[in-house]
Amino acid sequence: MRTSYLLLFTLCLVLCDMASGDTFLTGLGYRSDHYTCVKGGGQCLYSACPIYTKVQGTCYGGKAKCCK
After folding, report:
1. pTM for the complete prediction?
2. What span, in angstroms and rounded, lies between the C-alpha atoms of 38 and 18?
3. Is Disulfide bond among this UniProt entry's keywords (predicted)?
């Protein structure tokens, strides 16, 4: 009986970890906007982009700018 509770608890922990946004969606092939920005050579900033860079997209769900 103890073993079944332990297995059920472990299964719940695994499923809860998978349900948290980035880990689960990244595992299915979805990449966050932050990942695509940094992979493309940009950087995510909450403030305005520095001189000689342009806004190329968003980061963190549209809360920041991707500057390249």
Report:
1. 0.55
2. 24
3. yes
Q: Where are the domains of the chain?
A: 1-67
Q: Under a CB-based contact definition with an 8 Å cutoff, are residues 32 and 39 in contact?
A: no
Question: Among candidates 21, 30, 35, which has minimal Cα distance to 44?
Answer: 35
Residue type, 16: C
Over residues 25-50, the pLDDT tens digits come to 555 667 788 899 999 999 999 999 99
> How far, in Å, CA of 34 to CA of 32, rounded?
5
What superfamily would CATH give domain 1-67? Antimicrobial Peptide, Beta-defensin 2; Chain A (3.10.360.10)
Distance (Å, rounded) from C-alpha 31 to C-alpha 48?
Answer: 24
